Amino acid sequence: MKDILSSNRYMKVEFPFWITRTVQGSIAEHGHEFVELVYVVRGKGMHVFQGTRYEVHAGDVFIINPGETHAYEVEKGEQMEIINCLFMPSFIPDALLTELEITGSMDYFYVHPFLDHDVRFNHRLNLHGQDAVGVLNLLENMIREINNRSIGHTTLIRLQMIELLVLLSRYYTMMSQQRIHPSPRQLDREMTARRIYGYLERNYEKKITLQSLSLLFNASIRQLNRLMQEEYNRSVFEALHEIRIERAKHLLLETEEKVIVVATMVGYEDQSFFNRLFMRHVGCSPKQYRVTG
């Protein structure tokens, strides 16, 4: 069993965020319960993600999702300085997403981290010039705020984090514009479906309704399901159930929590419903999967 870093080791429930700047040495493969955004300030090294090695260097930005495993290798005599930004998806509440109308401006958070692994890390963001300066300034501002803890620091950090994700999403969109699409309309439909899917990945443990998604993504319930069917060949809730069951499989193998607790952790209050759903998707009960998986 790989080392899984717990969120309560770094952050509090009421403010699920932490950021630090460090000279990163080699570190063994590990996973974590939170989202990790990494910015390479200077130097270079190897980033080992899910067993595959990728060279990283100054200006690189990448995101590690909860449940994924990674490691670093830094050669003797080399140095790699990074900024680690750790947070739970709940750090950016739905009410703020709705009020600011930014679900279409967060593709670096809701789309890019759920692409194929090689696409993510062979086509990761690399910032330079004023883009790199702007992102580094935002990250350093958050470090100062969390260290000084002055009045209003939590509000400023939350807003700065949103600004950072919107900026990174802008750079990601510019980087992706070289892709050829049949039409702008089809691209818009594809991206909306991917944003919905990414939102489900980030918030699977919440009570999610079609009404709340409709409000977040400014689309009717019928449109939401049609877009998901076109892109993923499944409805919104079929996709949500698959995401939850996959996360439950990880929790059953990586933790010793009771099945009823695992069910709650992935968004199901009714254990019998969870058991039936798990059997349908996996072919065995949660208890059997824990023993044989």
From TrEMBL:
- What PROSITE patterns does the entry give? HTH_ARAC_FAMILY_2
Presence of the UniProt keyword DNA-binding in the record: yes
Q: Which UniProt keywords apply?
A: DNA-binding, Transcription, Transcription regulation
Instruction: Cite the SUPFAM superfamilies for this sequence.
Output: Homeodomain-like, Regulatory protein AraC
Domain HTH araC/xylS-type, first and last residues per copy: 194-292
GO molecular function per UniProt: DNA-binding transcription factor activity; sequence-specific DNA binding
Q: Which InterPro entries match?
A: AraC-bd (IPR003313), Homeodomain-like_sf (IPR009057), HTH-like (IPR037923), HTH_AraC (IPR018060), RmlC-like_jellyroll (IPR014710), Tscrpt_reg_AraC-type_HTH (IPR020449)
- Does the keyword Transcription regulation feature in the UniProt annotation? yes
Top-level lineage group = Bacteria
Spell out the PANTHER family in the cross-references.
ARAC-FAMILY TRANSCRIPTIONAL REGULATOR (PTHR43280), ARAC-TYPE DNA-BINDING DOMAIN-CONTAINING PROTEIN (PTHR43280:SF17)
- What is the protein name for this chain? AraC-like DNA-binding protein
Q: Which organism is it from?
A: Paenibacillus taihuensis
